[in-house]
Specification:
Elements: E1 14-16, E2 23-32, E3 35-44, E4 63-64, H1 65-81, H2 84-92, H3 103-125, H4 131-179, H5 188-198, E5 199-204, E6 208-213, E7 228-232
Parallel strand pairs: 1-5
Antiparallel strand pairs: 2-3, 3-4, 5-6, 6-7
Helix pairs in contact: 3-4
């Protein structure tokens, strides 16, 4: 008999990123070199034909239970011990800018263009330019204004996002301090408790796992744009 497992460590947290049904844990007994051995895996409910009138609705493959449990737990321990990793990953993915643009020159150019529009309207109303000239200059200026506004907006969003991530990182740091140093030695039940405390769900895609973190009360991270950490789905990458 293999080691008795109290349950499936990630049960209830795994979701298929293709059909959105849950992945659930299963164990089969397999004959290996050393006799009978338990093999644990998680599979997508969408691949069970019997649940859907005989025809499966998904073909996202099952995933090795030990592999996914160990990868998630190891990554989580790393993140709790070194929460800077969050900021690094989000910088690498370009979600937050490494060097945010200085917004002042952009804003002053925007003001100049807006004054330009007013002058253009004056010139047209005074008859200094004809309608065709007026329209073509107006459209050009409006395009430039839209570009600048988009650049300013994306920078501002990035700054807010960075602050949100920092807040979350601070939260994790306090949580990790509270757990103390024994993170590596704690038992199965405590592991499960920590995982459920920190992770809202794990989405299983074809090539990657996405860990979606819970957002504690008081941190302004929108549900539709959560903090995500991705891991390769297999050792091959
Ligand atoms: Zn599926």
């Amino acid at each position: 008999m293999g080691i008795k497992r109290p349950g499936y460590l990630l049960q209830g947290l795994l979701i298929c990123s293709e059909c959105r049904y849950a992945y659930y844990g299963r164990t089969t007994r397999q004959r290996g070199a050393g006799g009978l051995k338990d093999f644990t895996y998680y599979r997508c409910s969408g691949t069970d034909g019997y649940r859907f009138g005989g025809e499966r609705i998904c073909n996202n493959p099952q995933i090795n239970g030990e592999f996914v449990e160990v990868s998630v737990w190891t990554k989580l321990c790393q993140l709790l011990k070194n929460s800077q990793l969050f900021e690094q990953q989000h910088e690498q993915e370009g979600e937050i800018a490494r060097n945010p643009e200085n917004l002042e020159p952009l804003k002053s150019e925007l003001r100049k263009l807006q004054r330009g529009v007013e002058r253009l309207i004056d010139s047209y109303s005074e008859g200094a330019i004809d309608k065709e000239q007026f329209m073509s200059r107006l459209n050009r200026t409006k395009d430039r204004i839209a570009d600048l506004e988009a650049r300013i907006r994306s920078n501002t969003d990035g700054t807010d996002r960075r602050q949100e991530i920092r807040n979350l990182v601070d939260h994790f740091r306090r949580f990790a301090d509270h757990l103390g140093r024994g993170l590596d030695e704690i038992d199965w039940n405590r592991r499960r408790e920590i995982i459920c405390n920190v992770i809202e769900r794990i989405e299983i895609g074809r090539s990657a796992l996405a860990l979606i973190f819970r957002v504690p009360y008081g941190i302004a991270i929108p549900k539709e744009n959560p903090i995500v950490f991705t891991l390769p789905r297999s050792l091959k990458g």
